[in-house]
Amino acid sequence: MPGVVIIGAGPGLGLSVARRFAREGLPVALVARSEDKLKTLAAALTPTGVPVTALTADSTDETALRTALDTATAKFGVPEAVVYNAAIIQPDRPGELSVRAHQEAWAVNVVGAITAAAHIGPAMAQRGSGSFIITGGMPEPKPEYVSLSLGKAGVRALVTLLDKQYGPAGVHFASVTVDGPIAPGTAFDPEDIAEHYWRLHREQRHEWNQEIVHP
Length: 215
Known about the structure:
- There is one protein chain.
- The chain is built from 6 helices and 7 strands.
- The chain is an alpha/beta fold and 215 residues long.
- It has a single domain, classed as NAD(P)-binding Rossmann-like Domain (Rossmann fold), CATH 3.40.50.720.
- It has a 7-stranded parallel β-sheet, with helices on both faces.
- The longest helix is centred in the middle third of the chain and has 29 residues, at 99-127.
- It is globular.
- The mean pLDDT is 97.
């Protein structure tokens, strides 16, 4: 049974999104750089009873990311949903980062999503269904978060471009914009935010949204 692939899986929002989709019976493929983190996340999903596979890949390693997506597809089928949750969240003001540091941030925040979408999007389009949801943020750019502001603006542009490319074939591209620090028990509780991902995934084509802002 096709499931959900979480790229940039972590113990916060990534795990909450995985749990939300697992509650609906979808198998889960977790993709992250750390094997130890993946083992912990997979164990946390055991009570859900759905099949879980853990795949090690850095979102900026094109070959590794493509291989992880191929492995997930071979195991569960072409995904019903892909969630791109990788990001570099750091404070930096204009002129503080080197060119290389900006490139590294952009590679994680935007280019990894392009790699994943270009690799799995055609198969989803051929099937004629599925969703690809990117974690966004920074609805208003902030000078104390330059690289993140640029990256999240890039996410919005990317969603629009991918919608034009694959939307007509039935693949829903969207973003969930989180306007604050994610933390349990706050207005930015990851369990609450995860509901937006499921809502976007379940939207019918005539009601597609490209972005949901939380809160």
